Amino acid sequence: MRLTGIVWDAEEELSVNQLRQLMLEELRRRNFADTTVRTYLHSVAHFSQYFRRPPDQLGPEDIRKYQAALFTTFKFSPNTVILRLAALRFFYIHVLKRGWSIAETPYPKKVRHLPGVLSQEEVARLIEAADTPFHRILLMTMYATGARRAEAAHLKVGDIDSKRMVVHIREGKGGRDRDVMLSPKLLDELRIYWRGLRRKPKEWLFPGNRWHTSSHPVTTKVLWSACQIAAERAGLDSRRIHPHTLRHCFATHLLEAGADLRTIQILLGHRDLEVTTVYLHLSQRHLSATASPLDGLTFSSPGGHKHSS
User: Is this model's pTM higher than 0.85 or not?
Assistant: First the structure.
C-alpha cells in the first residue's frame, strides 16, 4: 500500500511543522544517531499519513489500529513494527507530553533469524567481482574491519593508523568509539586507492560524488550498491548479500580462526556478549567440533532391517 501526502489548511500545516521541529529537537538533545532520527521522523509522518490527520489529533485507538495495519496491510516484520512503535512512544511521551500504556500497545515478540554468511572463498569472489576500484576498496574495508556501513562510510583519513596498525572507528552505534586491527593487506590496498585519487581528501577517507572529490563522505547507499552489483557479477545474488553480511563474515571467520568471543565482541562494538554469541551458530569449526548424540548409539544392523537366515 502506498501512501500519498496529506493536504492540510495553513494552520494545520504550521502545526505539523512545529511538531516535527519539536521532535527533531528532542531527538537531537538526546544525541540520537542520525539514522535513528530519520527513522523516527519518518515513522511518525507515516502514522499521520495513514490516517490523513495531524499526529497530535490521534490517540490510543488510532495507534492500536495502526499497529494492526503494519502487520496486515503493510506486511512489516515484527522487528520493524517494534521500531515504529518506539518512534510513536517517543513522540507521545517527549513531544506531546502524554502518557503511553504498554498494556494497550504491546510490543510484538521479536523474531531472531540467523544471519547469512559467506565462506572466505565466496568473500574473495565478491570483492574480486566489484565493478570499480572504489567499490572494491569499500567491500574490502567492510570485511577487513567488521565496520557497519555508516561507520565505514564515515571513516576519516586520520582514522587509519599505520604506526599502531589499527583503524579508529568513531561514534559507532550508541556513540561509542573503538579500535579494530588494520590488516597489512588492507593497508596496501588503501595506499593503491589513495595514489589513484585525482584529489587527495583532507578529511573523509571515502569522499562522495563520482569523482570522489566531495567535502562530504560517500553515502551508505553507495555501499549497498557496491554489495548488490558485486554479488550479481559473482553469481551470488541469490544469497541476499548486503553490507552487514560482510560484518557477519568478519566475525564468523575470526571465530573459525580461533579468536575468542570476548575479543570479537570488542571488535564489533557489541555492548552485550549475548549478541555476539550468535556467531557460535554460524561457525563451521564450532558446529563440526560437536558430535551429534546419534553418533554415540549402536545399532544391530544398518537401515533397521533384521536379516533372515
Answer: no
